[in-house]
Amino acid sequence: MSSTINNIGVIGAGAWGTALAKHLAEKGLAVRLWAYEPTVVESINTSHENSVYLKGVTLPPGLVATSSLVEAIHACHGLLFAVPSHAARVIMRELAPHLGDARPVVCATKGIEEESAKLMTQVMEDELPTSAHRALMVLSGPSFASELSEGRPTAVCLAGSDHTLVRSFQEVLMTSTFRVYADTDVLGVQLGGALKNVMALAAGVIDGLNLGLNARAALITRGLAETIRLGVAMGADPRTFYGLSGVGDLVLTCTGALSRNHAVGVQLGRGERLETILAGMQAVAEGVRTARAALTLARRHQVDMPITQEINTVLDNKKSCQQAVSDLMERDAKPEKG
User: Fold this and answer.
1) What pTM did the predictor assign?
2) Are residues 164 and 227 located together in one domain of the fold?
3) Does residue 171 carry a pLDDT above 90?
4) Are 80 and 32 in contact (CB under 8 A)?
5) d(Cα 338, Cα 294) in Å, to the nearest integer?
6) Do 309 and 298 meet the contact criterion of CB atoms below 8 Å apart?
7) H-helix or E-strand containing 10?
8) Of 176, 199, 220, 159, which Cα lies nearest the Cα of 309?
């Protein structure tokens, strides 16, 4: 463990933020976890369990939760940011005056801001001084929070423009069960982590309609093609999408039983209304908001993303799931690598 990074503030006490905080606390770091809900703070501090978002997982007694952002980042050597994308700007704006220029921030949020179609680091750059931009990093990859919290082997990617800083946090995060690979493609790593949630909604629809494994495999493959097309148009390295933050996370989220976005898609495929599905969920399904932002990016960069377009028509209740699948299948014939 790096001798200069031993105090971390984790912002966001959903399942993923809590699992990361647990991971770091068990490694011996001083960790304070910020939660929006007072009930979550009380649960963590009194029962050593996040009974709302990570029920049944015992947290280290040394892991302290707080509802104060200032307290969460006090004397910390870096931040892990795991706030849902729709709240990221507001929280970062509140944090910014207290961070200073050199406080490293690792963004673990997988999403795109719906209103602006900006990636999370772009949102952070809007709110932070220019001198702080180089200290921004992104953590992404195939990683269900519950499995990380159980100590099951997990591998992810940490991307940033400052090689020395990335190496330092790579060392801080890694354990015998949590492997972290370094990268420099901040844009590509974020796009892969965000768009896989959109494709997971579509894969869930396929499964909800009982269309079979052939159809799901085709959906995942063509979803990867869409992601790469948009990524290249935006300046990402296409090789990034064949890594952990790309195809790794895509396969996990489109097939794993623990995927919230896939579960939403399954319910849509079975005929349930989106409003009813979301009303019954405690956690956030990032793919719903990200789908709309992704379509904005596709149009902005003139990229053909038919799966993203069709899942938006389903989410907006403009087309049935069956009709969306039929329209995808009946598109004009195209070369696979086109």
Assistant:
1) 0.95
2) no
3) yes
4) no
5) 20
6) yes
7) strand 7-11
8) 199
Percent of the chain with pLDDT over 70: 99
Q: What angle do CA 279, 283, 285 make, to 5 degrees?
A: 80
Tell me the pLDDT tens digit for each residue of 70-109. 999 998 999 999 999 999 999 999 999 998 767 899 999 9
Q: Are residues 76 and 205 in the same domain?
A: no
Domain hosting residue 198, numbered range: 194-329
- Residue after which a domain boundary falls, among 129, 163, 184: 184
Indicate whether 166 and 47 sit together in one domain: yes
What's the number of domains the chain is made of?
Answer: 2
**Pair (82, 228) in one structural domain:** no
Query: What token pair was written down for 52?
Result: 């709302």
Tens digit of pLDDT for each residue in 14-28? 999 999 999 999 999
| Domain CATH for 145 | 3.40.50.720
CATH number of the domain to which 285 belongs: 1.10.1040.10
Helices (H), 132-178: 145-149, 163-173
Within a domain: 337: no
pLDDT band at 338 (very low <50, low <70, confident <90, very high): low
Has 27 been annotated as catalytic? Answer: no
Q: Which of 110, 118, 196, 319 is catalytic?
A: 196
**Distance of alpha carbon 302 from alpha carbon 8, whole angstroms:** 41
Letter string b/e over residues 278-299, b meaning 16 or more CB atoms within 10 A of that residue's CB: eeeeeebbbbbbbbbbbbebbe
